[in-house]
Design brief:
- The chain contains 7 helices and 7 strands; from the N terminus they run αααβααββαββαββ.
- The protein has 3 domains: 2-72; 86-143, Helix Hairpins (Orthogonal Bundle); 153-294, Histidine kinase-like ATPase, C-terminal domain (Heat Shock Protein 90, 2-Layer Sandwich).
- It starts with a helix and ends with a strand.
- It has helices at residues 2-37, 50-105, 112-143, 156-166, 168-174, 192-209, 263-273; strands at 152-154, 175-180, 188-190, 211-220, 224-232, 277-283, 286-294.
- By secondary structure, the chain is an alpha+beta fold.
- It has a 5-stranded mixed beta sheet. Strands 1-3 form a two-stranded antiparallel sheet.
Length: 295
């Protein structure tokens, strides 16, 4: 009787072992097929087996993670290629202009006035080129977390007012400007030079792309301070709006001008590093950048 029981147990174990081996072989074949032909098919067990199913579930989880990483890598690789193409174009534009005017300066028949005019253009394009290189470098440091910052309480009203005073002539010439910066606006937590860079970029972006009206408002919120920069004439669509802070974005799809698409990308990167937030709105042809800071 004992021998019969043992034989039965051995038979059952042998069947389970055979079924397990069969499932593992089937899983190996599925893995090989997936590796050779690609695809994201889920690995399945040929027969019920709790332990093998648990193992297969973990394998499927790892495979999904690998697929997600591959997909993310493809997206980042595409963005990097686009950024390299943009950088190449943006640097080549002023450089081509500089080389062209340098060739014109070789003409011995130029009058002193023409020579001075051409030299001014070369200087202007050289400064533009320097600004582009600086922007690319700063954005790369920001994305790598290597941009130096000193955290302190900063008078935001003073920062914005100084920038408005510096650009008063240009702004008044192009916009109907309205400003509301309360005198009791509390200080915000951030880096003074970085905050200055943020609002300087917003004003330059408005001067380059806006028209009509420019409104600058600030007020106290529950958690800190909110500022809103609104300008008309925005050449944007609702579909483009979520991408205005992307480093590869430019509303000038032909990149025929000097729009690098980096100004707002730097604004958001600086805001994020200082614990603030940046958002954008588009309503009735007016583009608004909303920045929120902790006080």
């Amino acid at each position: 009787m004992t021998a019969v029981v043992l034989a039965f147990i051995c038979g059952v174990l042998a069947l389970r072992l055979y079924a397990l081996e069969k499932d593992l072989r089937a899983g190996a074949r599925q893995l090989k097929k997936r590796r050779e032909k690609g695809g994201g098919a889920t690995l399945r067990m040929a027969a019920p087996n709790a332990a093998a199913e648990a193992l297969m579930a973990e394998v499927n989880t790892i495979l999904r993670q690998v697929e997600d990483e591959r997909s993310d890598f493809r997206v980042r690789e595409k963005a990097l290629r686009q950024q390299i193409a943009n950088v190449s174009h943006d640097l080549r534009t002023p450089l081509t202009s500089i080389l062209g005017y340098l060739q014109l300066l070789e003409d011995p028949g130029l009058s002193p006035e023409q020579r001075r005019e051409y030299l001014e253009v070369v200087e202007s394009r050289s400064r533009a080129l320097q600004g582009l290189i600086t922007a690319f470098y700063d954005l790369s440091r920001l994305e790598a977390g290597e941009y130096p910052m000193t955290r302190e309480k900063v008078d935001l009203r003073e920062v914005i007012s100084q920038l408005l005073a510096d650009l008063y002539g240009d702004l008044e010439e192009k916009f109907q400007v309205s400003v509301d910066l309360p005198e009791d606006l509390p200080a915000v937590w951030g880096d003074r030079s970085a905050l200055t860079r943020v609002y300087a970029n917003l004003l330059r972006n408005a001067l380059e792309h806006g028209s009509g009206r420019l409104s600058i408002f600030a007020w106290v919120t529950k958690d800190g301070v909110e500022t809103r920069f609104t300008n008309g004439g925005a050449d944007l669509t609702e579909e483009q709006l979520p991408h205005v802070f992307d480093r590869t974005f430019t509303s000038d799809q032909t990149r025929s001008g000097r729009n690098t698409g980096l100004g707002l990308a730097i604004v958001k990167a600086l805001c994020d590093q200082m614990g603030g937030s940046a958002g954008a709105e588009l309503k009735d042809g007016e583009f608004t950048v909303v920045l929120r800071w902790r006080s």
